[in-house]
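Q: What residues go here?
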């Protein structure tokens, strides 16, 4: 306990958040590993693959926030560091207003366009599901947008360096969705439609309750108010947010298109294999992101106060953890086949090449985020933006080439993602060292 409370106040707070977040994510992992085979076995490979592809497509919408979420995180953290509480309230109110306008418009546009989209073709669904999918997409899309607006309370918690509390909502939502799913399986006939609805509704319920509670108590002084909406501040949020937005769009291209490419080039069944392998190896990335994400707003505070020695110490520790993660990925690879059989069953056969590529991708990406989270916290993301745009333009053709003509299948798509992140994994550390040594000039400082 004395070790936990030793050192800089910011470090103590971060360690406590990390420990609590690991415990929370442990619960989340258990729920996730129960959920995947439950859905897979009751929906089958085809419908489960359709569900994963559909959610991947809809997930693109979160990037239409023009980066306001990350902009709010940086600006709110900066305002707290400078004790500018009224300014923090203005940023909160303005962001909620912006989100409402943006996503309200997006949903209206979707209602207009949706009848003209052939979801049976887009998702390669079997004949007979077209009518069901047209209604399903509207319900899931609407709840997803509402969930994303309500998730702003998570941004505020993270900006206030209360990541552990913000991490509670996802596993709690998944637990509620799991309970509702089991009820449907026991007392009704599980279908793609009704299971998708309960999975979509659960987080909206929990985030809505949490938002009401926190804005009436802990964050009462920052509660959104029409009187404090100021679109002059929206411009400030948007200037920073737009850069995050473009970077996020490239993340969509690099990450979220994987399921679609696999569906179109290999088939929906291969999406299930990809998702299972991604879930397994993604444990390493998820655990590392817990740590890195906790330090984002702490980095912002330290950078504003020019406490570079503390930043360097944290970064050295993260690099040591990355070395341990690489060892962990090798262990996961060795036991992958045995774990798949134990987890999903003998009917699922995940190729070794897919598991290998997943391990490589996670190793590269985790190294990248060690440095990019600090860079994001400073707001000096212009170089990252340029690199992301360049590599994203080649990601889809590269992944299709590796999956199709090269015959690597789903493993080729994952290899394409790993190769795409290599340039950033080389340049981000250089920019980090320039910033912490106050030698960043030109593009390195923008």
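A:
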């Amino acid at each position: 306990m004395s070790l936990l409370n030793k050192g800089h106040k910011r470090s103590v707070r971060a360690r406590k958040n990390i420990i609590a977040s690991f415990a929370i994510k442990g619960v989340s992992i258990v729920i996730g590993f129960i959920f995947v085979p439950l859905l897979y076995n009751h929906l089958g490979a085809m419908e489960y693959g359709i569900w994963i592809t559909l959610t991947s497509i809809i997930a693109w919408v979160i990037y239409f926030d023009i980066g306001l979420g990350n902009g709010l995180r940086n600006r709110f953290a900066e305002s707290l560091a400078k004790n500018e509480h009224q300014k923090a309230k203005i940023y909160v109110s303005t962001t909620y207003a912006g989100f409402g306008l943006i996503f309200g418009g997006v949903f209206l546009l979707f209602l207009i366009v949706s009848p003209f989209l052939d979801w049976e073709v887009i998702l390669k669904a079997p004949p007979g599901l077209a009518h069901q999918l047209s209604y399903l997409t509207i319900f899931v899309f609407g709840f997803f947008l509402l969930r994303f607006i309500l998730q702003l309370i998570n941004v505020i918690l993270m900006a206030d360096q209360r990541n552990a509390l913000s991490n509670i909502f996802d596993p709690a939502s998944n637990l509620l969705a799991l309970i509702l799913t089991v009820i449907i399986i026991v007392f009704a006939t599980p279908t793609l439609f009704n299971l998708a609805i309960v999975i979509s509704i659960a987080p909206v319920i929990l985030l809505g309750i949490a938002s009401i509670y926190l804005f009436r108590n802990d964050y009462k002084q920052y509660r959104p108010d029409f009187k404090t909406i100021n679109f002059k501040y929206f411009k400030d949020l948007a200037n920073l947010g737009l850069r995050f937005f473009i970077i996020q769009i490239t993340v969509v291209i690099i990450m979220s298109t994987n399921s679609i490419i696999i569906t179109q080039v290999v088939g929906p069944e291969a999406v299930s294999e990809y998702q299972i392998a991604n879930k397994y190896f993604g444990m390493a990335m998820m655990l590392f992101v817990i740590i890195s994400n906790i330090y984002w707003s702490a980095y912002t505070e330290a950078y504003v106060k020019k406490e570079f020695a503390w930043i360097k110490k944290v970064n050295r520790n993260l690099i040591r953890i990355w070395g341990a993660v690489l060892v962990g990925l090798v262990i996961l690879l060795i036991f992958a086949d045995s774990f798949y059989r134990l987890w999903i069953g003998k009917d699922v056969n995940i190729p070794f090449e897919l598991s290998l590529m997943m391990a490589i991708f996670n190793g590269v990406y985790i190294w990248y985020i060690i440095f990019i989270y600090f860079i994001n916290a400073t707001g000096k993301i212009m170089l990252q933006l340029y690199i992301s745009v360049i590599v994203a333009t080649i990601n889809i053709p590269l992944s299709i080439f590796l999956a199709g003509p090269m015959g690597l299948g789903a493993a080729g798509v994952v290899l394409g993602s790993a190769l795409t992140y290599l340039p950033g994994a080389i340049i981000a550390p250089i920019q980090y060292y320039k910033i912490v040594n106050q030698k960043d000039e030109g593009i390195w400082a923008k």
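A: Context that may help when evaluating the design: Residues 257-446 form one domain. The chain has a mean pLDDT of 83.
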